[in-house]
Amino acid sequence: MKIDIYAFSGNGAILCDKLIENLREHKVNAYVPQKYINSARFVKLREENIYRAAEESFKNADCIIFVGSAGIAVRAIAPFVRSKKTDPAVICMDERGINVISLLSGHIGGANKLTLKIADIVGGSPIITTATDVNGKFAVDEWAHNRNLHIMSLKKARDIAADILDNRSIGLESDFEVKGNMPPEIDFNEKKTGICISLDSGKSPFENTLNLIPRIVSVGVGCRKGTDFKDVYDAVKEVLIRHNISHFAVKSINSIDLKKEEEGIKKAAEVLKVPFNTYSKDDLNKIQGQFSNSDFVKKIAGVDTVCERAAIMGSESKRLIINKTVVNSVTVAAAIDDYEVKF
C-alpha cells in the first residue's frame, strides 16, 4: 500500500516518524511545510499547497493520512471524492495521536483496518463510524474486497448492508467451494436477497442478487503487428462472453515479449484496468501441456502458440479453461486460478 501523510506542526512531524517506523511493510511518505522540516528525521518538504498535494495523492496513493484537524482533511479532499470503489482510504488524526479517525473508504479502501493498526501504534483511540462495524455485523463490501471479489453493484451492496442492519438474513450461492465459519447473517435457505459468487455476472439466483466476481482469469492474447485496440478489446470480451465469464474476472492480459509495445493490447489492458505481462519465447516454451499448433506463429515468434501459453504463464494454477479462439484475427485464450470462498 502506498501511503501519503500530511502533517502541519512540529508534533505532527514527530508522529509521522513514528508511523513511518512502524508501517515498514507499506511505502510511506510524510510531508510537512518548510517550517517543520527539521522537526523529524523522515519527513519531506511539501512544496505545494495542501489542496494540490491532496489531489496528487488521490490519484496516486492508496491511503492519505492527515495529522491535524478533521476540518483541514475534509476541505483538502472534498473536491476529489468520487466513489467508494475508487477513492483512496483517508484517515485523520490529531497531532498527539489521541484520536484516529477513519474518514473515507473504510471498507473497500481499508481505512477501518488501518485505523485500528495506527491507533495501536500511537496509543490512540480508533474512531470508526460505519454502521456494520459499530453494530458488529458482517460487512459484505469489506469482505468482498479482501477476498479479491469485484462488486458488480454498490447499490445492491448497500441494500444488503441495510437488510443486515435490520437483522434480516441474506442468502449465498457460490460456484466455488465455501470454507470457514459462516457469518450468522447468512442463511442458505434465504431466497429473496443474497450474494452470488460466480464468474458469470448474469446469474441471478435471488430476487435481489448481488453478484461478486472473483478476479482469477488470466487472458492470453496474440495478434498481428499494428492490430487496432478495438479489435483486441472486442475479441477478448467476445470470447469471455461465449463462456459466460465477466470481463471483471480478468486479472491480467498476457502475451509474448515481442508484443510488449503493441499498442492495441496495451490499451486493452489499460481499459480493463489490469496489468499487461509479457514473456520470452524460452519461458513460454517451458510450459507443459497440449496446445494449439501454428507453423506460422512458430516461424515468427518461436513458439507454437502465444495466447494459450501466455494465459497459463499469467495463472497461478496453470489451468487452461479457454483454448485458442480466433476473433478479428486476434487469438485469445484464458487460464484460471484456483479459488475458494473463505469466511
Relative strand content? 25-35%
Helices and strands, in N-to-C order?
EHEEHEHEEHEHHEHEEEEEHEHEHHHEEE
Structural class by helix and strand composition: alpha/beta
Report the strand count.
Answer: 18
Provide the low-confidence segments as ranges. none
Q: What is the number of helices?
A: 12
What percent of the residues sit in helical stretches (DSSP H or I)? 25-40%
What does the largest sheet look like? 7 strands, mixed
Head-to-tail CA distance between termini: 23 Å
What's the mean pLDDT score? 95
Describe this structure in words.
With 343 residues, this protein is an alpha/beta fold. It has helices at residues 10-22, 50-60, 70-77, 111-122, 131-134, 140-146, 154-165, 229-242, 263-272, 281-285, 295-301, 307-313, and strands spanning 2-7, 27-32, 44-45, 63-67, 89-93, 99-104, 125-127, 149-151, 171-174, 178-179, 193-197, 208-214, 217-222, 250-256, 276-279, 319-327, 330-336, 341-342. A seven-stranded mixed beta sheet has the order 3-2-1-4-5-6-7, sandwiched between helices. Helix 3 links the parallel strand 4 (63-67) and strand 5 (89-93). The longest helix is centred in the C-terminal third of the chain and has 14 residues, at 229-242. The mean pLDDT is 95.
